[in-house]
Design brief:
The structure is a single chain. By secondary structure, this protein is mainly α. The chain has four helices and no strands. The chain is elongated, with a radius of gyration of 21 Å. The two termini are 37 Å apart.
């Protein structure tokens, strides 16, 4: 997902949290459904905190500040909601987790598509003047 980006503090922090959460899930000896819910809610809360702080501290993504703040707060609230679910409503938690994962993947996909389109626009601005100056395209308008 981040193959064309330079390595930043946010990307390293996200990879560390993902690795730490995965390590806990795969090495904990007595895991049950509640354990997975707690780990997922921990991961979701940390990702929401990262999204909120990276949106507030970013200097080059000011046009998406509202999206980062909205998604960050939503992930934090969803993480704490999953942590505090009661036994009576445990049947609905699967749908809630699915809904949160859909929002997570759609928002990340939309941001990736927007970033790729910006890269293509910038590339066209660089390449087109160079091609027009060359002899090959000098007669084409």
């Amino acid at each position: 997902m981040h193959f064309d980006e330079s390595v930043t503090r946010e990307l390293i922090a996200e990879m560390i949290v993902d690795a730490f959460t995965g390590l806990i899930i795969f090495t904990y000896p007595h895991s049950d459904n509640e354990f997975y819910l707690i780990i997922f809610s921990f991961w979701l809360t940390i990702m929401g905190t990262f999204m909120l702080t990276s949106g507030l501290l970013s200097k080059h993504n000011k046009e998406y500040l509202w999206l980062f703040i909205l998604l960050g707060i939503s992930y934090i609230v969803a993480g704490f909601s999953i942590m505090n679910v009661s036994q009576e409503s445990s049947g609905l938690i699967n749908y809630f987790i699915g809904f949160v994962l859909i929002i997570y993947s759609v928002s990340n996909g939309a941001l990736i598509i927007k970033r790729k389109l910006n890269i293509l626009r910038n590339l066209k601005k660089i390449v087109k003047p160079k091609l027009l100056k060359s002899n090959f395209l000098s007669g084409i308008k």
